[in-house]
């Protein structure tokens, strides 16, 4: 009886670890989607309102509660003290995406966005937003594929390892 309960706990524990690992793929997809939403909102705000970046970032950051909006909020605060957007963006990016599931390629897109914001006229900004949207869409498709394949694999692997260990212990 005790052995059976321990085996069940072992199977559930290993399965839980597999599910936790699979969550990282889901979280990456959600963060990329949040970035895509933030990019669209930022583009619209900059195109129609034509306010200074700290004002735009502060207003947009109140829309939702996620890492992308946290990045904008922190950047808007930092820009009120210093007008060097590159430095503000990089420090805000480090703060907002610390411990994130995003890959280096994903973070490079965010960093490129910060380097390009406010550097050109409206047409240049529109081209930059279009390019960033395309890059993010590619990363989102990759993240979706990884979530479907690797996420399932880790879930199954966790439970399978738990079952194998339980069988070996019996």
Short descriptors:
single chain; 170 residues; mainly alpha
Q: What is the first-to-last residue Cα distance? A: 11 Å
Helix content: over 70%
Largest sheet: none
Structural class: mainly alpha
Please state the average pLDDT score: 86
Number of strands: 0
- The value of Rg in angstroms is 21 Å
Q: pLDDT under 50 segments (min length 5)?
A: none
Instruction: State the shape.
Output: elongated
Total domains: 1
The number of distinct helices, counting runs of at least 4 residues, comes to 6
**Percent of residues in beta strands?**
under 5%
Order of helices and strands: HHHHHH
Task: Explain what you see.
The protein is an all-alpha fold. It has one domain. Helices cover 84% and strands 0% of the residues. The chain is built from six helices and no strands. The mean pLDDT is 86.
Question: What topology emerges from the helices and strands here?
Answer:
Elements: H1 2-48, H2 53-60, H3 67-81, H4 85-96, H5 104-116, H6 122-169
Short description:
It is built from 6 helices and no strands.
């Amino acid at each position: 009886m005790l052995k059976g309960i321990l085996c069940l706990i072992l199977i559930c524990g290993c399965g839980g670890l597999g599910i936790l690992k699979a969550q990282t793929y889901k979280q990456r997809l959600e963060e990329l989607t949040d970035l895509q939403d933030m990019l669209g909102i930022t583009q619209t705000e900059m195109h129609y309102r034509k306010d200074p970046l700290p004002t735009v970032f502060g207003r947009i950051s109140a829309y939702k509660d996620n890492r992308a909006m946290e990045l904008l909020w922190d950047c808007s605060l930092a820009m009120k003290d210093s007008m060097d957007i590159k430095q503000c963006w990089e420090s805000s990016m480090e703060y907002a995406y610390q411990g994130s599931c995003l890959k280096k390629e994903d973070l490079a897109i965010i960093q490129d966005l910060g380097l390009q914001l406010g550097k050109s006229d409206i047409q240049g900004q529109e081209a930059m937003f279009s390019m960033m949207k395309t890059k993010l869409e590619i990363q989102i498709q990759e993240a979706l594929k990884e979530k479907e394949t690797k996420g399932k694999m880790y879930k199954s692997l966790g439970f399978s390892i738990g079952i194998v260990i339980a069988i070996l212990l019996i």
